Amino acid sequence: MNSIVCLDNINKSYHSLDYEVKVINNISFKINNGEFVTIVGPSGCGKSTILNIISGLDKDYDGVVTFGEDISISYMTQEESLFPHLSILDNALIALKVKGKLNNNSINYVNGLLRKYGLFDIRYKKVSELSGGQKQRVSLVRTLSIKPNLILLDEAFSSLDYVNRLKISEDVYHIVKEENISALMVSHDIAEAISMSDRIIVLSNRPACIKKEYLISLGDSPIENRNNKDFNYYFSKIWEDINE
Amino acid sequence: MSSKEHLLFLRKSKRNKIIIRSFQILIFFLFILFYELFGRNNIINSFITSYPSKIFSSLISLFINNNLLFHIFITLKEVILSFIITNIISIIVSLILFLFNTFDKIVEPYLTMINSLPKVALGPLIIISFGSSSSSIIAMAVLISVFTSIETISNCFKNTSTSIIKMLKSFNASTIQIIWYAIIPCNYKNIISSFKISISLCLIGTIMGEFLSSKSGVGYLILYGTQVFNMSLVMASIIVLLIMSLCLYLIIKYIEKHLI
Ligand SMILES: Nc1ncnc2c1ncn2[C@@H]1O[C@H](COP(=O)(O)OP(=O)(O)OP(=O)(O)O)[C@@H](O)[C@H]1O
Ligand SMILES: [Mg+2]
Questions:
Q1: A86-89: long-range pairs with CB below 8 Å, 24+
Q2: Do A75 and B168 count as a contact with CB atoms less than 8 A apart?
Q3: Could you tell me whether strands A62-67 and A73-76 are parallel, antiparallel, or unpaired per DSSP bridges?
Q4: A90 and which of A86, A182, A195, B191 could share a cystine (Cβ 3.0–4.6 Å)?
Q5: Strands laid side by side in the A36-40 sheet
Q6: Pairing, β A62-67 against β A3-15
Q7: CA A222 → CA A93, A105, A116, A174, A231, distances in Å?
Q8: Among B95, B91, B99, B96, which residue's Cα sits nearest to residue B195?
Q9: Which of A169, A81, A186, A95 is nearest to A127 (CA)?
């Protein structure tokens, strides 16, 4: 299987005048085409930093990152990054605009996504008037709008209520699988990670290194996976790793 | 459908509004009334301050005999030109400061220094270099307003949401796109409020410029009135100035409300 991104011996420190923090310690891993990988690890260990490096936002690191052919990355960052003065629709279309890919097809695709996430009827509403969960769904639509082949999701569902969280994770899972997208997700929710992923990478405390990796083989529905007989096995293993 | 409470709330806020407006109007008329009474009965020195009816008749005669509209037009032209120049310069400089961090750090102390300098002090220099013409008045107004404008606009550019800029960069947005999609529109409100400050600074600068050197304009009328001890003329010109600044402010407010 070809890999879409490959990290080789990545090291990273943050510098300031009076201190230096090593955040990433010799991390190497790759993500195969169509694979769904989730990173879990303690808060502040360096998960977002890894996504920043892969997305190309952070170029100040040691090591090599290589990409597969025709890479197109879409990054849903941990912080909210919507334009408050624009409507839902305009926010959802901004990535297409920036990439010069705005046309009837892409607009239809975005409208379809908005409909799916219950945003279509309020698409002209200003983002500043939305709830946290609605905002997160707009960000998700924007992330998917450019039909990337690698998506980076940093706590993408954290503001959603439980029911929507399950529904949307189910949905994102199917989009990823059906469109043959690869995904790298960061999540604090171990159950969510197990239910959605093909593989889970457990990171240590700062400076992050890879502590364990789990290949997960459950069914192909995150919601049903939670009832799979092997689910608890993975859960207790990863729980132990994190709380060691 | 509004609930009873909502209707009550609406009625209450409407009543409040009426009370505020009526007091504002009342104060205005009381002011005019007492001004007139005190002036006519020499309770205040009417030679210096004049009084409303005299000011009004002097306004009329200014309009008829001294070509008031022409002077207003001259001053307005200078204010608007200097306003446009000021804001084009400020936005361009602010963008440069935003994009080139090191440059920003280098010039920062100089900008602060110039900003605190009373720019009128440079008046004579300007007249020597631009000559005694409209352009030296515009230069004066620009000089007075531009540094404040740069400071406000560049400060708000620097406070543009970093997460939005990060998002745009993650989609490989170019610098131009970041400016076009984020820097300018996210700061739209701040830019307009800086316009409100700079329009009044431009008016101040223009009048100062006209004091220093001019043959026309409202500032010239004030200066001329003082020289010939025609205080009604001075007061009338000041009133004209007041109305002008109010109109300019309202125009910007209108733009703020309707142009987006
Ligand atoms: N710009 C920065 N300058 C200095 N230190 C930073 C910077 N950004 C992050 N750090 C530090 O690096 C470490 C890793 O940060 P990172 O955001 O990658 O953590 P994280 O694993 O995503 O945490 P969380 O789960 O809470 O989001 C943290 O300890 C943080 O304090
Ligand atoms: Mg993080």
A1: A86/A126, A86/A127, A86/B185, A87/A123, A87/A124, A87/A125, A87/A126, A87/A127, A88/A114, A88/A119, A88/A122, A88/A123, A88/A124, A88/A125, A88/A127, A88/A130, A88/A138, A89/A114, A89/A123, A89/A124
A2: no
A3: unpaired
A4: A86
A5: A73-76, A150-154, A182-186, A36-40, A199-203, A210-215
A6: antiparallel
A7: 28, 30, 18, 9, 11
A8: B91
A9: A81
What does the block give as tokens for B179?
Answer: 């400016």
pTM summary value: 0.83
Nearest CA in chain A to B179: A98
pLDDT in tens, A114-125: 998 889 999 999
**Residue A237 to residue A221: CA distance in whole angstroms:** 21
How many CB atoms are located within 10 Å of the residue A148 CB? 20
Q: Between chains, do A83 and B164 touch, taking CB under 8 Å as contact?
A: yes
* The amino acid at B128: I
**How far is CA A1 from each of CA A34, A37, A39, A210, A218, rounded to the nearest angstrom?**
10, 15, 21, 22, 20
Task: Please tell me if residue B42 touches chain A, with a CB cutoff of 8 Å.
Answer: no
pLDDT bin (cut points 50, 70, 90) of residue A49 is very high
Q: What are phi and psi of A65, to 5 degrees?
A: -115, 125
**Dihedral over alpha carbons B122, B123, B129, B134 (to 10 degrees):** 140
Q: Facing residues of A214 across strands? A: A200
> What parts of chain B have a pLDDT lower than 70?
1, 260
The pLDDT tens digits for A91-148 are 999 999 999 999 999 999 999 999 988 899 999 999 998 988 889 899 999 999 999 9
Name every protein residue with a CB atom under 6 angstroms from any ligand 1 atom: A 14, 21, 23, 43-49, 78, 206
Picking from B41, B32, B215, the residue whose alpha carbon sits closest to that of residue B134 is B215
Using a CB-CB cut-off of 8 Å, the residues of chain B touching A83 are 164, 181-182, 185-186
3-state secondary structure of A8: strand
CB contact under 8 A, A99 and B172: yes
Task: Name the residue type at position B187.
Answer: N
A contacts of B177 (beta carbons < 8 Å): 98
Angle, helix B231-258 to helix B52-65, in steps of 10 degrees: 80
pLDDT value at residue A109: 94
**Cross-chain Cβ contact B166/A77 below 8 Å:** yes
ipTM of the complex: 0.89
CA of A49 to the centre of ligand 1 (A): 7
